[in-house]
Amino acid sequence: MRREVRLDELDLLPEDVIRRLEEKDILTVEDFVYADPKYLAEVTGMTEKEVESLQDELRDAVAEADEVEFRTLDRVERERDRITTGSSALDEILGGGVGCGELTEFAGPFGSGKTQIAFQLCVNVQLPESEGGLEAKAVFIDTEGTISPQRIKQMAQAAGLDPGEALRNIYVTQVGSVEEQLQAAKRAYELCEREDVGLVAVDSLTAHFRAEFPRLKDVKERQTMLANHVKDLWKIATDHDVAVVFTNQVHVDVEAATKGRGRKYEPVGGTIVAHQATHRIMLRRAKGEVRIARVIDSPYLPQREAPFRITKEGIRDLQTE
Ligand SMILES: Nc1ncnc2c1ncn2[C@@H]1O[C@H](COP(=O)(O)OP(=O)(O)OP(=O)(O)O)[C@@H](O)[C@H]1O
Ligand SMILES: [Mg+2]
Question: What's the confidence (pLDDT) of residue 110?
Answer without folding.
Answer: 94
